[in-house]
Amino acid sequence: MRIGLIAPPWLTVPPAGYGGTEAVVGLLARGLAELGHEVLLAAAAGSTSPVAQVAGSLPPEPRHLGRGQDELRHVLNAYAQLGAVDIIHDHTLSGPLLRLAGHRIPVVSTAHNAMDDRFLPVYSAVAQCASLVAISRHQSMTATGVAVSGVIHHGIDATQIPVGAGSGGYACFLGRMHPNKGVLTAIRVARRAGVPLRIAAKMRSAGEQEYFQQVIRSELGGTIEYVGELGAAEKFALLGDAFALLNPLQWDEPFGMVMIEAMATGTPVLSTLRGAAPEIVVDGVTGFLRETPKALAAALPGCAQLDRGNCRRATETTFGIRRMVGEHVAFYEKCLAGALASRAVPA
Q1: Alpha-carbon distance 300 to 334, whole Å?
Q2: Backbone Cα Rg of the chain
Q3: pLDDT tens per residue across span 66-121
Q4: Collapsing DSSP states into helix, strand and coil, what is residue 89?
Q5: Looking at residue 328, what DSSP letter applies?
Q6: Tens digit of pLDDT for each residue in 247-274?
Q7: Is 6 helix (H, G, I), strand (E, B) or coil?
Q8: 255 with 233: CB under 8 angstroms?
C-alpha cells in the first residue's frame, strides 16, 4: 500500500524528548516501511523518521502545543501533498474535518484524546469523515454516540530499549507536570511508603511551569527529587534503575505510553484503577492497580518482588511494535476493501 501519515505539527517525529503521539507515529511509519509499504509522512520540519516526508512543513513549536492555526496550516499542506497515496492515517484533530471537497482518498483517524465533554463532539464529527480508531477499549466504551470503527493499542519497539536491573532503590514518576498525571499524589504515596522518588516531567507550557512553582516545588527535598525532562537514553536509564513506576493517574487516560515504556525496561507499574490502565497492567504480574493513596503506598514496596521478565515479555508481545503495525495494516486493508466505511468526501 501507499500510506500517508499525518502527525501533529508541534514536535518532530520521532520526538527528541516527551511526545507520546509523535513516538507512536514514528514507530508506525518505520514499521510500515519495514513491511514493504510505501510511506509518506507529514510531520514537523526537522523530523528524523527514515521514511519520505512531504515538503513545506513548518518547524516544530512546542510552546504552541494545541494552537489551532498551526495545526490548520500543517494539515492543509499535508492533504495538498498526499494525493498519490491509497489511504491517509491522520493523527491530528482537525485534519479529517478539513479535507478539501473532492478529496476521495479514504482517511483513518486515531483518537489520541479522552472522550470527555471537550472532545466528544469533535470526534463525533471526525467519525463522519474518517474511520475512527480508539486506542483502548475504555476509550471506545466512553465514546457515547461516536462511530468508533476499531480499537488498536499502542505498541513499542522493545529491541531499542535496554532492560534495567531495578537496582537503584527508588521509584520514579514520568509524565507531564500536570495535576491529572498525579505527580503530587506520587510524592505523597512515596513519602507514606518511605520510598525515594525521582520525578522526570515535561514542563514547557506556562500552565505546567505554574503548577510546578505553586504546588510541586515546595514538596521537593530529602528523598523526593525532580530531575527535569529527560532525553530517550536518560529516560530509559531512569526507568530501568527504578523498582517501580509510580503512575497515580487522576483522570481516565485513554492509553498511557509511559506504562509500556517502563515495562519494556522490566520495571513494574503501580497505577490507579482508571482509564486504560487495567488493559495495560496485569495486577500482581506486571504491577499493581489500586484506588486510593493509602492502598498505593501499601502496594509500592511489593513492586520490587515482581518478576521483571514478565514486564519485558508483555512489551515484546501484547504491546510490541509488530502487533501494533500488523493491526493497522489489517485495518487499512478493511477500509480499502469496503469492509469499513471509507467515508471519502464525495466529489
Answers
A1: 44
A2: 20
A3: 577 888 999 999 999 998 899 999 999 999 987 655 578 999 999 999 999 999 99
A4: strand
A5: H
A6: 999 999 999 999 999 999 999 999 999 9
A7: strand
A8: no
Set out the domains of the chain in order of their start, with CATH numbers.
2-155+320-337 (3.40.50.2000), 158-316 (3.40.50.2000)
Query: Which residues touch 283 (CB under 8 Å, ≥6 apart)?
Result: 289
Q: Name the residue with cell 518478576.
A: 307
Q: Which helix (H) or strand (E) holds 132?
A: strand 131-134
End-to-end Cα, the chain, rounded Å: 23
Quote the pTM value. 0.92
Best CA proximity match to 43, nearest among 8, 67, 17, 69: 8
Give the torsion through C-alpha atoms of 132, 138, 144, 147, to 10 deg: 20
Query: What is the DSSP track for 231-293?
Result: -HHHHHHHHHH-SEEEE--SS--S--HHHHHHHHTT--EEEES-TTHHHH--BTTTEEEESSH
Q: Which residues, including other chains, have CB under 8 Å from residue 342's CB and lie 6 or more apart?
A: 106, 107, 131, 335, 336
C-alpha–C-alpha distance, residues 29 and 298, integer Å = 41
In degrees and rounded to multiples of 5, residue 148 shows phi and psi of: -85, 130
Which residue(s) pair with 150 in the sheet? 133
Residue 322: Cβ-neighbour burial (10 angstroms; 0-12, 13-18, 19+): middle
3-state helix, strand, coil in the chain (%, to 5): 40, 20, 40
Side chain identity at residue 220, one-letter code: L
Count other C-beta atoms under 10 Å from residue 84's C-beta.
10
- Burial string for 233-256 (b: 16+ CB within 10 Å, else e) reads eebbbbbbbbbbbbbbbeebbbbb
Is 56:40 a contact under the CB 8 Å cutoff? no
